[in-house]
Amino acid sequence: MWSGPHDANTGASRASRCHNRGMAEITQKEGTWAFDGEVLRLVPGRGRGVHQLRIEMGEVSIPLAAIAGVSYEPGRKGGRLRLRMREGADPFTQGAPDLPDAANPYSLQVDKDRAGAAEYLADAVRNALLLEQVPVDTPSDRYLLPGPPVPRVFQGSDGRVHFDGEQVRIEWDWGAEEVKKSAGPRTIPLSELERVEWTRATWENGSLRFVPKGNYVPMKGTHDPYAVVLWGLREAREIAQGALMVAAVSARLPHPSGGTPAEPARLTKEPHTPGEKREHDHDGLLRRLRELGELRASGVLTEEEFTQAKRALLERF
């Protein structure tokens, strides 16, 4: 299903084929990004040196409506693709702190000779966002991606966290402070949980904190019975387990907009008859062309941007 590493000539040939199919794809050491006009699929690499978080997260299918933007940042020895998610659309980015590039599944290190393919993919996603009029600056009122599957386990420096989809349970290890051991294990139903907070271990200890509803008074992580301490001794493991735990819990809590947890957006369209599809496509094409013309006339699009977007629109239809 997914292609392996290839040289520059093979990559150019593939880019041409993807262009004819209305697709864009790039494969690098950290993984493969493939965009079909509606969904951006991220597949992690399997080679040595690929971060544990990418591997454990596995393949991710991101609907266009969840994307706020994508950019290619060129560098002296290569570059990096970066994906920016719409606020509130993704439980993974909701509670995870800034991740190092090596761990961040929404970034991709690009070899210098593959810069063209990276820029092509970025342009394809940006054009699709424009054509579909995705409200990239407007927060989503529900999660458009599912959270990681449960159950999940997180091993901290002084305790272990279990999450089964309905409740969080914290059990203390021998290294926990006496105040935590005296308090005993903690079981927090989702109905009593306000949010989850993750602070990565850097120069200071980090923590994974489960904030309960009510009159909770935060305290130092080593003494807080609702927090597991992180020492950063095994950073890759802590990042992988921590990010996925935060995403799993966040996805099953009420959405930050105030709504209840929602099912992920459908990634497939409703079935329709061939005649209905042709009529819908024709009307949609005329409407989108008219909208593009208005954007050019108002100065929002340059002539070059208008021509590029129009070409992409005609290829899709």
What does this structure look like?
The protein has 317 residues and is α+β, with helices and mostly antiparallel strands. The protein is 32% helix and 25% strand. It contains 8 helices and 14 strands. It has helices at 8-20, 52-57, 91-95, 115-131, 178-183, 235-251, 274-297, 303-316, and strands at residues 24-28, 31-35, 39-44, 60-63, 67-74, 78-85, 107-111, 152-155, 159-163, 167-172, 186-189, 193-199, 206-212, 227-230. Helix 4 packs across helix 8 (303-316) and helix 7 packs antiparallel against helix 8 (303-316). The two termini are 25 Å apart. Residues 1-21 and 262-280 have low confidence and may be disordered.
List the topology elements.
Layout (H helix, E strand, L loop, with lengths): L7 H13 L3 E5 L2 E5 L3 E6 L7 H6 L2 E4 L3 E8 L3 E8 L5 H5 L11 E5 L3 H17 L20 E4 L3 E5 L3 E6 L5 H6 L2 E4 L3 E7 L6 E7 L14 E4 L4 H17 L22 H24 L5 H14 L1
Antiparallel strand pairs: 1-2, 2-3, 3-4, 5-6, 6-7, 8-9, 9-10, 10-11, 12-13, 13-14
Features:
alpha+beta; 8 helices; elongated; 317 residues; 14 strands
Biggest sheet record: 4 strands, antiparallel
Secondary-structure-derived class: alpha+beta
Specify the helix fraction band.
Answer: 25-40%
**Poorly predicted runs of 5 or more residues:** 1-21, 262-280
* Average pLDDT level: 82
Q: Report the portion of residues in β strands.
A: 15-25%
Shape: elongated
Strand order of the largest sheet: 1-2-3-4
What is the number of strand segments?
14
Rg over C-alpha atoms, rounded to the nearest angstrom: 23 Å
Distance between the termini: 25 Å
Tally of helical runs:
8
Order of helices and strands: HEEEHEEEHEHEEEHEEEEHHH
